[in-house]
Write a structure and sequence with these properties.
single chain, two-stranded antiparallel sheet, six-stranded parallel sheet, 15 helices, alpha/beta
């Protein structure tokens, strides 16, 4: 294992009715609360009523910022920053899924910058660490997907420039997050599917990376992946099951709270390529990952001996592939095929055309230029590699 530091200060309130804890946090911070959310779903699932009741109990002024979209955009963040400054906001409350939480994280960041600083150019593009003492953030989660509720990472889209970038800095970490499974009981099937794709891919981005030694992080990643698959099937069979939705919530949180990345190099090549898709075509993040991820796997699984061994191990330990009498390469290929077959079974897209993206040379060049040198571990993915992976996304993965 590589050297690492692990520190995650986020307090989790899990279970039905836990939004009441918003009251105590709001009371401790005199001033206005900025309530950030998307559309009408939080009013249908009960989350809006619960948090506004908690805020009335606290007695704070409440300023609402609604209309956060999937692939949250810079202009909405800047609107929120202006509200923070105008109303003297002392607490930001994000009620929603990963897009809402990420938007709120960037509002927190923007509210702590000086007048001569630019959020996008000075921080998001450069990766410059966020200043300390930002307006604190608390979360009420309504979608199991990104894991943003227990981490310091966020993603932002600059639609005017067709750029979508990730940003990580410790001061963006929420103070606490409420995970109430009842808010997931009315989620549409498509959102549920894309949420599971995202969390499963998160575990893979950490698992398929050097070093390939036998460490606890990898054992935990395999266990989380197996449990994600069980939760996924349970939510499909019983979408209004509190137990199934609760497991999904905890799965997504542990997929990206940095426990399973400790001692690992991490990869994130698939996410880097997907960001190009949603930056230009505004597709759901999970849909883009479903298209790219199996093709990335096929592209890298023979890139070095450690990669083939790792993919074979994954095929056996996560997908239950019988390795008897087979080479490691054959086992790895069967695992990737089972993954692609599962994605098809649950209704996820596997090709660019299924998400409305043309595969003409000019479009592929544009997307590859955005992806650029997206990183990687077993294999460094350059701009040309990204283009080759995108070109393969014209058809489903086959061996």
């Amino acid at each position: 294992m590589r050297n690492f530091i692990f520190h995650n200060p986020v307090k989790i309130y899990f279970g039905e009715g836990q939004a009441v804890h918003v009251t105590e946090e709001a009371k401790s911070r005199p001033g206005a609360v900025l309530l950030v959310y998307g559309g009408g779903s939080i009013k249908r699932n009960g989350a809006y009523d619960d948090v506004t009741a908690a805020l009335r109990e606290a007695g704070n002024e409440v300023v609402e910022l609604s209309g956060v979209t999937p692939n949250p955009r810079l202009d909405k963040v800047l609107e929120g920053v202006n509200l923070v400054r105008e109303h003297g906001v002392s607490l930001i409350l994000a009620v929603g899924g990963g897009s809402v939480i990420d938007c709120a994280k960037f509002i927190s960041l923007g509210s702590g910058l000086g007048e001569d600083e630019d959020l996008w150019y000075d921080y998001v593009e450069t990766g410059k660490p966020a200043p300390e003492n930002l307006v604190p953030l608390v979360v009420v989660l309504t979608i199991a997907a990104t894991g943003s509720e227990m981490g310091d990472a966020a993603v932002l889209t600059n639609w005017a420039r067709n750029r979508k970038l990730g940003y990580t800095s410790f001061p963006l970490t929420p103070k606490f997050s409420v995970l109430d499974p009842t808010y997931l009981l009315t989620l549409p099937a498509e959102q549920t599917t894309y949420g599971f794709v995202d969390m499963f891919c998160h575990t893979c981005e950490q698992y398929f990376s050097l070093p390939s030694d036998d460490n606890l992080s990898d054992e935990m990643a395999e266990a989380i992946q197996r449990h994600i698959l069980r939760s996924w099937c349970a939510c499909r069979r019983h979408p209004r099951s509190y137990e199934a939705r609760g497991n999904a919530m905890w799965d997504s949180t542990f997929a990206l709270n940095r426990v399973i990345s400790r001692g690992k190099e991490e990869d994130w090549g698939t996410h880097g390529i997907e960001h190009a898709l949603s930056a230009y075509f505004d597709i759901p993040h999970g849909a883009g990952l479903a298209v790219v991820h199996p093709h990335w796997m096929k592209y890298v699984y023979t890139s070095r001996p450690e990669a083939t061994v790792r993919f074979a191990r994954w095929a056996v330990n996560v997908w239950g592939v019988d390795s008897t009498g087979k080479s490691e390469r054959e086992v790895a290929e069967e695992g990737i095929e089972r993954y692609a077959d599962f994605l098809r079974l649950v209704g996820a897209p596997l090709t660019l055309s299924e998400v409305g993206i043309p595969a003409d040379p000019a479009t592929l060049d544009k997307l590859a230029d955005h992806a650029g040198d997206v990183g990687g571990s077993y294999r460094r993915i350059t701009r040309d590699d990204a283009r080759a992976i995108l070109a393969s996304c014209v058809t489903p993965v086959v061996f």
